[in-house]
């Protein structure tokens, strides 16, 4: 396509496809939410296809004009049956097998809606930012508009010393799921036929399905809203007890059990607190571990909290701890860094990619005993050294700014990529007028 053929003089008509779009749900659901908001702020016309489970939440949060951009798909009876069956298996098996089948069926339903949309109105480019899993199948193909998928991540295993966390059934499910995806990508060739695939790193690039026809470009998948998560004014540990905070799903690979064990020696010494935020299938197990360690007076389990409450808690935290062992991204950790909270994280996966030893204490996961001891030592260092807390807190925010891990920057960069692959406009270009859309702060 020549430069003259691209719709550079006008706004793009973007069809954004993602199963979940939410600022309040966990993990990758926030990615399409921020892309939507910033694409609109850049003056592009965006339509969205997603699952109806987020409909009520979006209706409350968005203004009428933005909410009207959404089309929703429902679960079929087969998907509901698969959901019930999957709950009888270990969580990892349920996630790798049954949830993947459910998502596959959702992809096919969203493809039908996308085809209907393209038959009614012009679309310059289809953008699918989620799911970020590189092995996930995309139903966006042969729709009459170029497709951009990503940024994707994944293809990551547990550290070698922790591979036994996955039992035989889980390892079999992982091998089976990864083997089956090759056939699925041939049957449903959304990623193989896409005009552009965005990957977070070389590990993700290597995990792409074979037979890719489009371009592949490296773009990190996570970011943080630096305009919303602002640096705090003071270190709360200077005039109060030292507190540590964790936020995420209660699943084994998040390493919460190791965090509790590492925190126990400090709790017995007194003068510290651990705030655990989130929910999941391991909540009961973590509660029992806290009781067994005898540190119930020093650990507060908050469950899932509203975003505004979490932001407030970050301002009152002495340090953030991310002991995750199979994390490709790291949004919660980056939110802490943006707030100026010093970070302790695992020297593995997303944490090691989005932070560095200049702005965080990274603990090598060499063995279970050494990992726990390393977390304990790191927490004790921060509890005793106010200057280290200040230095790491300031460096964390600066690192995000310098590396461009801001949603405004990332959305602009991705919009430029969409512009590269967009089809010629079917009508005369419309000049960009940012004033046509509500400011970002008014749309949330």
Describe, in plain words, how this protein is organized in 3D:
The chain has helices spanning 30-41, 55-61, 64-67, 77-86, 91-120, 168-187, 190-193, 202-206, 256-269, 283-293, 307-315, 331-339, 349-354, 368-384, 386-402, 407-421; strands at residues 13-17, 45-51, 70-73, 125-128, 147-152, 196-199, 215-218, 242-247, 272-277, 299-303, 319-322, 343-346, 361-363. With 444 residues, it is of the alpha/beta class. It has a seven-stranded parallel β-sheet. The chain has a six-stranded parallel β-sheet with strand order 10-9-8-11-12-13, sandwiched between helices. The longest helix is centred in the first third of the chain and has 30 residues, at 91-120.
Give the uncertain stretches in residue-range form.
1-9, 425-444
What's the overall average pLDDT, rounded?
A: 86
Number of strands: 13
Structural class: alpha/beta
Number of helices: 16
What oligomeric state is this? single chain
- Overall shape: globular
Distance between the amino and carboxyl termini: 37 Å
The name of the CATH topology of the largest domain is: Rossmann fold
| Rounded Rg | 22 Å
Helix % is 40-55%
List its traits:
single chain, 444 residues, alpha/beta, Rossmann fold, 2 domains, seven-stranded parallel β-sheet, six-stranded parallel β-sheet, 16 helices, 43% helix, 14% strand, globular, disordered N terminus, disordered C terminus
């Amino acid at each position: 396509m020549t430069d003259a053929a691209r719709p550079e003089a006008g706004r793009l008509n973007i069809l954004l496809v993602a199963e979940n779009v939410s600022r309040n749900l966990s993990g990758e659901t926030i990615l399409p939410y921020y892309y939507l908001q910033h694409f609109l702020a850049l003056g592009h016309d965006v339509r969205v296809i997603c699952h109806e489970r987020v409909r009520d939440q979006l209706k409350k949060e968005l203004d009428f004009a933005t909410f009207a951009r959404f089309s929703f798909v429902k679960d079929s009876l087969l998907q509901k049956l698969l959901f019930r069956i999957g709950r009888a298996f270990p969580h990892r098996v349920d996630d790798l097998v049954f949830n993947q089948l459910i998502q596959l069926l959702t992809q096919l339903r969203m493809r039908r809606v996308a085809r209907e949309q393209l038959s009614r109105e012009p679309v310059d480019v289809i953008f699918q930012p989620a799911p970020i899993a590189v092995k996930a199948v995309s139903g966006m193909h042969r729709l009459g508009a170029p497709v951009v998928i990503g940024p994707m991540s994944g293809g990551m295993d547990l550290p070698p010393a922790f591979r036994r966390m996955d039992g035989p059934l889980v390892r079999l499910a992982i091998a089976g799921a990864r083997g089956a995806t090759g056939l699925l990508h041939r049957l449903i060739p959304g990623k193989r036929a896409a005009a552009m695939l965005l990957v977070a790193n070389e590990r993700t690039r290597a995990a792409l399905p074979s037979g890719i026809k489009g371009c592949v470009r490296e773009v990190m998948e996570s970011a943080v809203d630096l305009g919303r998560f602002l640096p705090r004014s003071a270190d709360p540990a200077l005039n109060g007890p030292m507190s540590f905070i964790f936020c995420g799903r209660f699943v084994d690979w998040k390493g919460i059990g190791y965090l509790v064990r590492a925190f126990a020696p400090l709790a017995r010494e007194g003068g510290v607190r651990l705030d655990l935020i989130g929910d999941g299938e391991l909540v009961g197990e973590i509660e029992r571990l806290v009781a067994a360690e005898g540190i119930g007076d020093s650990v507060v389990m908050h469950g899932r909290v509203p975003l505004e409450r979490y932001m407030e808690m970050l301002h009152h935290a002495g340090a953030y701890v991310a002991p995750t062992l199979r994390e490709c991204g790291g949004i919660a950790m980056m939110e802490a860094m943006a707030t100026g909270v010093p970070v302790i994280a695992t020297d593995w996966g997303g944490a090691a990619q989005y932070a560095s030893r200049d702005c965080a204490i990274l603990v090598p996961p060499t063995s279970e005993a050494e990992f726990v001891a390393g977390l304990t030592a790191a927490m004790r260092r921060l509890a005793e050294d106010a200057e280290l807390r200040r230095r790491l807190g300031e460096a964390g925010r600066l690192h995000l700014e310098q590396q461009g891990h801001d949603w405004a920057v990332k959305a602009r960069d991705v919009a430029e990529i969409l512009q590269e692959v967009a089809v010629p406009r079917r009508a005369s270009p419309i000049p960009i007028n940012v004033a046509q859309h509500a400011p970002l702060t008014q749309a949330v």
